[in-house]
Every structure is written in structure tokens, then in C-alpha cells.
Amino acid sequence: MTEKTPVLSVRNLVVEIPTRHGILRPVDNVSYDIHAGEILGVVGESGAGKSMTGNAVVGLLDRPARITSGEILLSGQHIHTLKGEALRRLRGKMMGMIFQDPLTSLNPLLTVGDQLTETIQEHLKVGQTEARNRAIAALEEVGIPAARSRIDSYPHEFSGGMRQRVVIALALCAEPDLVIADEPTTALDVSVQAQIVALLKRLCREKGVAVMLVTHDMGVIAEAADRVAVMYAGRLAELGPVREVLTAAHHPYTAGLMASTPLASQGKERLRQIPGAMPRLGNLPDGCAFHPRCDYAQDRCRANPGPTLDTCDGRAACWFPLNTKQKDEVSA
Amino acid sequence: MLAYIIRRVLQSILVLFVVGLVAFAMFRFVGDPVDNMLGQERTQADIERLREQLGLDQPFVVQYWRFLEQAAQGNFGLSYRQGRPVSEILLERLPATLELAFVSGLMALLGGIALGIFTAIRRSGISANIIMTASLIGVSLPTFLIGILLIYVFSVELGWLPSFGRGEVTRIGGWTTGFLTESGLKALILPAITLGLYQMTLIMRLVRTEMLEVLRMDYIRFARARGIREKSINFRHALKNTLVPVITITGLQLGSIIAFAIITETVFQWPGVGLLFINAIQFVDIPVMAAYLMLISVMFVGINLIVDMLYFAIDPRLRVDRTAGGH
């Protein structure tokens, strides 16, 4: 897997927002790869820069946010330098995006079929009938029953879970190599969440699509992701295979996140909390951004420059990673 | 949907009943008509006889009903001033007003929507900002002033367009039209601009605001993320969603174009029903006033009804006769 060119390769990406009080960096020096048929989970609290990273990849950053340095490569090609029309051609065709709320991400006044066929015809050279057949196939693929008769329905005629399936069908209908799913399950019922996660996983395996799954739900990560990237205050805190990260977190923040995730098997013990809140972007502490909330912080953590994946063990951006030798120091 | 239409029609009829009551009440406010109709040397017997003849001895409700009955058949009695049936006079004048309202309404709608979209898409462009600033003038200048300014520039100074009247008209059946002659068309330009300018700027600002709102929606973002081209995003995905609220206001505005025509028709001496109404007020010609009131309200109610029907055509969420998919 590592031999092949990754579908998506993000190198030292920096996104900045100029404000009156100085420049904010919602995404600060983030690097990761996603390979074909792989799901990379991106977790973190609100404002950690998860969605911003996804938006930067598809070139949909809201102004005044902009990429100031770093590289984004899609199947080995630079795409962060593309603009306007060239970028539009890539969207949908090479990279699809799934949004959080299926109730608002479909146009209420166009039928599901209209929205699908328009997207298909935008990217693939097919006629009206062929596009319609492909649209029906796309709906069947995401598990919409009686797709042939539902294709001319309007979004409001579907339930929330079904709408999210339609959204996924829309994101995948032009057969992109990369899908960025931005909190695809957050707005759904728990029972529907599991179905949607299973669907994403199946499509990823069957079609060999690379998936970037942005979420704040550790359960979804554990269920679906192959590797996980933990973000904190715009930086990568930890990046590694999901099983290893979840069972033996190296970064104290990851460990804290795991400890604060409720599990049915845990019984009625009080959940652990991470004390304090994530610092505001305009007011980051020196050194490691997590040190004010970290139980293990030492002098080195407060000193500049802070730890990064490269300067530490390659998995966690921490000077004193947990679970490296003494396995039972902090358990998940 | 059918139930909704029936309900709206019934509501409309109720509104017309109320307006009819107001129109009917006008007759009573100006005193007893019998006093005017009989001379000084009347006897009580004469008065009683005429009252009976005119049905004025009947209870109020019966009189009101008879008024409505007549009105529904288009019979509003004789004009005090001209001594001719009011309906005949109105029908003569109506084409002029309707043609003027149609042209200025069309101009307001097309111009308003086009400029609204333009200023929304080019939000920070220079030309969009110039248009927005200019539109403030359109909103804030009173109609008669715009009319007088236009007359001054285009009729007095430049001498391009006539300052009053309808020009030559062609008679087709009972309808007189100014569309077929050059002088008729020329005469239409200034009044149409005067009448439509305010509505156009209003529609433009409304379309712009709605469009900006819609362009921020998730489904527009999602359409962008799917690589849909800007043209389709603006005119297919966004415009349709913009039109739903715009239609409401526009419908009401088109109704008021006919009503506002009074001022424009006065400024340009346009021989329509508005001018007729102004003259009727000067002569206290009650039957004409009552008929005008009823006519305008029928148009308002009719336009509103059509607007409500248009919702169904545009927004599928209102057509709830099909069963929605469940969980």
C-alpha cells in the first residue's frame, strides 16, 4: 500500500485567516496521506481545524481564509495552485464531498434525479438517458429501495437517513477517487448513523475510493476508519493506525478524548473530562498547544518550538508520549 | 391542494364583500339621495313614494344585497356627472390603465430580477455598487417627481417623447390599444418608467437580498463541491429558491401598480381609470368612485389568488398530496 502514490497527499498545509487582531491559523502545518480504499478518520473538538482541512482540499475555503503554504497533491498532481474553472472540473469528478446535514445539503426545488443527472452530465460525457440510468444505479448502490420510482421525488419526500444516502450518491455519482465526508452522521439518528457508516465503508472497499472521514465521534472512527488523525488547535496531535491509537494513545490529548467517550460496557462510572477548553486560535500558548490542559506537562512542553510529528516519534506530536514502554500507564 | 384553493377563493369572496360594504356605505355618507332628487316643493308623500321606488325603505341588509347583486352584474348605476352608465365609462377607460400597468409591471419584474441577480452575483463589483446606490434614488423619490423630471428632460428639453396623453390609439372590438401605433408606443414610455421605477428598484433589492441569502445555503455549497458550473448554480439552483419569497411581494406590488397609476395618470394626463377616479372625487361622483373601488379590489384579490397558485408551481414542498417517504 505504501508503495503506490497516495490518492491524497497533504504536505505541511497552512491555512490562515487575516483578522483585525492578527493572523489566525486554523490549520497549522498539517501533513497526511490517504491511499485508495482507505478511510482516514479526522477527529478533534469543534474548531480544531478538521472541516477547514477538508474545505482546503476541495478549494472551498470561505474568504478570507486561504492556503498560505504547503502542498496538496491529488494522485500525485498539485491541486492547491489550481483556481476557478480548473478546480471546478476536479470537484465532483476527482473528489466528492459529503456534508453534515442532509436536510439542508439538497436543493429543495429540484428533484433528486435532476441533481444527480446534472452532476453526472457535468463530468462524464453521457447522454440524457444514460445519465438517468447511471443516476438510478447510483441510488441503488447507496441502498435506496425502488430507486427507479423514487428518482423523480423531491428531497422533502425522503427521510433524513435516506437523504444522506442521496447525498452520498451525489458525491459518488461522477466516480471520484477521493471523498471527503464532513461529519456525515452528526445530524442523524443513532440507528441511522450505523447504517451510513457501514455504507461509506462498503463503498470505500468496493470502489477503492479514498475517504477522509471528518467527525468528532470516536465511535464512528473506531467503527469505520483504518487510520486516524487527531487534531488539536489546528495541528495534528496524533496520526496512526486506528487500533493502535485507540488502544494505546501516545498523545495525552488522544488519551483524554478516549477516556471521555462513553461506552455502554463501562457501566455507570463517571466519565473522565479533559479539564479546561481548547485555546482560542488568536491566543495559543507557547510550545505545545495542549500543555495547559495536560496532566503530564513539563518545562520542555512550554518552550518554543512546540512538538510536531516529525520532531517527535512520528506518531504523536508530544515530547513525552504515553504508552511507549510502560504499556499500562494510561489505559483507554 | 384543491381544499387550499377553495379556501383561498372563499377568503377572496369575503374580502370583496367587505370592500363592497365600504363602497356601499359611501352612498349613505353623502346624505339622503332623495333630498337631491326631489325639488324644494316636495311633499312627504312624494318622499315616501320615491323611497319605495328606489327601495330605500328596505332594511340596510336588503339594500346592501341588492347593491351587490347589481355590482356583480357590472351595474353601478349612472354617473352623476356624465349621466351615462358607470360600467360603460369604466370599460372605456380600463384598457389605457391596463396597458400602462402591464408595460410598467413587466419592466419592473424583468428589470428588477435581472438587476437583482446581477448585483447579488457581483456583490463587490463597482457596477453593482453603482446600481445599488442609484436604486436608493428610485426608492426614495416620489412618483410625481420622477414623472415631472422625465417630462422636463425628455419632452421639454430633448423633445423626444410626448409629455401627455396616449397618442394615437387603435380600436379593436371594445378595446383601445396604443401598442400598434408609433405615437401610442412613444406616449407609453415615460408613464411606464414613472410607474414602474419604484417597483423595479424594490424588486431588485428584494431579489438581491434573497439571492445572497440563498447563495449561502448548504445546497449551493454542495453543488459547488460537485463541480456544478457557476451559471447553473446561479440561474438554476439559486434563482428558483430566490423566487419563492419574491413572488409574494411582487404580486402585491403589481396590484399596487394599478392603484398607484392614479398619480402617474394625473401627471401625464393618461386617460385611464385613475384619472377618471381623481375627476370623480372632484365632482363627488359617488357611483364612479364606488365602482372604481370595487374594480381595484377585484384586481388585487385576483392577483393575490394567482400568486398563491404560483407557489404550487414553484415549490414542490407545498404539493403534499403525495405520500412522503417515512423512516
What this model shows, in words?
- The complex is a heterodimer of chains A (332) and B (327).
- Chain A has 11 helices and 10 strands.
- With 332 residues, chain A is of the alpha/beta class.
- Chain A has a domain of 74 residues.
- In chain A, the strands form 2 sheets. A 6-stranded mixed sheet of chain A has the order 6-7-8-3-9-10, with helices on both faces. In chain A, strands 2-1-4-5 form a 4-stranded antiparallel sheet.
- Chain B has 327 residues and is mainly alpha-helical.
- Helices cover 74% and strands 2% of the residues of chain B.
- The radius of gyration of chain B is 25 Å and the shape is globular.
- The two termini of chain B are 25 Å apart.
- The C terminus of chain B is likely disordered.
- Chains A and B meet through helix 2, helix 3 and helix 6 of A and helix 9 and helix 10 of B.
Question: Any descriptors?
Answer:
heterodimer; A: 332 residues; alpha/beta; 6-stranded mixed beta sheet; 4-stranded antiparallel beta sheet; 20% strand; globular; disordered C terminus; B: 327 residues; mainly alpha; MetI-like fold; two-stranded antiparallel ribbon; 12 helices; 74% helix; 2% strand
Question: What's the short version?
Answer:
Chain A is α/β, with parallel strands linked by helices and 332 residues long. Chain A has helices spanning 50-58, 84-90, 112-123, 128-141, 147-150, 160-172, 190-207, 218-224, 242-247, 252-259, 299-302; strands at 8-19, 22-34, 39-43, 66-74, 77-78, 95-98, 178-182, 210-214, 227-232, 235-241.
Could you say what the CATH architecture of the domain at 89-282 in chain B is? Answer: Orthogonal Bundle
Order of helices and strands of chain A: EEEHEEHEHHHHEHEHEEHHH
Q: Determine the fraction of residues in helical runs of chain B and give it as a percent range.
A: over 70%
Terminal residue distance of chain B? 25 Å
State the total count of DSSP E strands of chain A.
10
CATH superfamily of the domain at 89-282 in chain B: MetI-like
Q: Which two chains share the most extensive interface?
A: A-B, 41 and 28 residues
Question: Which value, in Å, is the CA radius of gyration of chain A?
Answer: 21 Å
Specify the helix fraction band of chain A.
25-40%
